[in-house]
Amino acid sequence: MTQREELSRFLKAARARIKPSELGLPQGERRRATGLRREEVASLAGMSVTWYTWFEQGREVQLSAAMLERLSTVLRLNPQEREYLFALAQHRPAPLALPPDEEVAPSVQHMLDSLSVPALVMTPDWTVIGWNRLVARIFRDYGKLAPSERNLFKILLLSEDYREDEQEYRDLVRRLTARFKWDYSRATNPEVFEAIIRQMKEQCEAFRACWEESEVVSYSEGVQSVEVEPVGRITFQHTSYAVEQSPTQRLVIFAPVDAVSAERLGALV
Predict the structure, then answer these.
(1) Which of 29, 68, 118, 168 might form a disulfide with 254, Cβ 3.0–4.6 angstroms?
(2) % helix / strand / coil in the chain, to the nearest 5?
(3) Alpha helix locations (H) across the chain?
(4) In this predicted model, what pLDDT tens digit does every residue of 100-117 receive, in sequence order?
(5) Half-sphere exposure of 31 (CA within 13 A, CB side)
(6) For 133-165, b where at least 16 C-beta lie within 10 A, e where not — what string?
(7) Considering the entire predicted model, what is its pTM?
(8) Domain range holding 140?
């Protein structure tokens, strides 16, 4: 037996053991097998039926690491089975399975609090989990929001605060969506992203248009201006960095772009 033949056997066995009802799918009177159909696996994993069929048949098709991660989630593979899938499909070990870390380490929060510029920490799906007092003073106080309402992607796209200039708003949505696509492609919990995507398609016309475009970016930076009482308008450039001790978290720092903005920020500090 070749490795491709074993990959085919393994995938068939994995989907056969999952009851459709476990995933909220109807059993159906015409269902001959007890497990999932190929088209159901493909749909849940976000791939075409043809591509998955070829992959399960053992043909020489290549899936990305992100696609294999989604397939592992759909088929409910345990850590050893996940490793086995990657070994058969890519002939190399699987990437480290890093669960989203939703708590900010005390040392990271101390660093945030010591900065003289606004800074926050968020998870891969853009949920803000840490911030300093300047973020609360200048942008919004996340402490006054329920944890379920702290998703920065949804805040920026749905808030009326960013729609004063229609062209600027559409440029903002385009940039954010291009980065959100990148994060989605690397997600180990794609179902969380997909829920956000569905909501944005329903509630944000600009997002629907941008999602259909091909633009994708792997970094996050930009410039934005904020009117802050009583000092006036401050313009920031924001950049993001990985938090080394929690690689799934992203640190976003907002620095004033000019002397006037720096002076006004200094007055707040």
Answers:
(1) 118
(2) 50, 15, 35
(3) 3-16, 38-45, 49-56, 65-74, 79-90, 106-114, 133-138, 152-158, 166-185, 190-203, 205-211, 259-268
(4) 678 898 899 999 999 999
(5) 17
(6) ebbeebbbebeeeeeeebbbbbbbbbeeeeeee
(7) 0.66
(8) 106-268
